[in-house]
Amino acid sequence: MLWKLVKFGIVLVLAELLSLRVSVDLGHPSLQERFALEWAGCQQALADGTPNSCTLFGKIQIVEHFPDVKVQVVEHFPDLRVQRVEHFADSAGEWQIVEHFPDYKVQIVEHFPDIKIQWVDHFPGCD
């Protein structure tokens, strides 16, 4: 029994020295695993041309059909706070509404949105 504890201790020390992560899987992903999953989702969305809430800014065209992203306007708990600007929509949540040559096409829906937005006059951005 003592030898098994010593071997386990040696394994833990070696794992720490080699920067390996030893954990017990309880069915819940760790913070690093959750970050990796979210990062993979963001990379896939960027590869598909579909923006996430923090990359949805720039010249936006509001359309009825064939959008890049569907948004729902809410009053509380938005994914993105959006401010309409006339020029230089170059940070998260700043939208310059255009009719031609948009960066993204957005459809405003009541149900099943990709992103929930809130119109604001100040402090646009994502949470």
Question: Topology, please?
Answer:
Blueprint: H1 2-17, H2 31-48, E1 58-62, E2 69-73, E3 80-84, E4 94-97, E5 104-108, E6 115-119, E7 125-126
Parallel strand pairs: 1-4, 1-5, 2-5, 2-6, 3-4, 3-6
Antiparallel strand pairs: 3-7
Order of helices and strands: HHEEEEEEE
Give the spatial strand order of the biggest sheet.
Answer: 1-4-3-6-2-5
Q: What is the helical fraction, as a range of percent?
A: 25-40%
The span between the termini is: 51 Å
What does this structure look like?
The protein has 127 residues and is of the alpha/beta class. The protein has one domain (31-126). The chain is built from two helices and seven strands; from the N terminus they run H-H-E-E-E-E-E-E-E. A six-stranded parallel β-barrel has the order 1-4-3-6-2-5. The protein starts with a helix and ends with a strand.
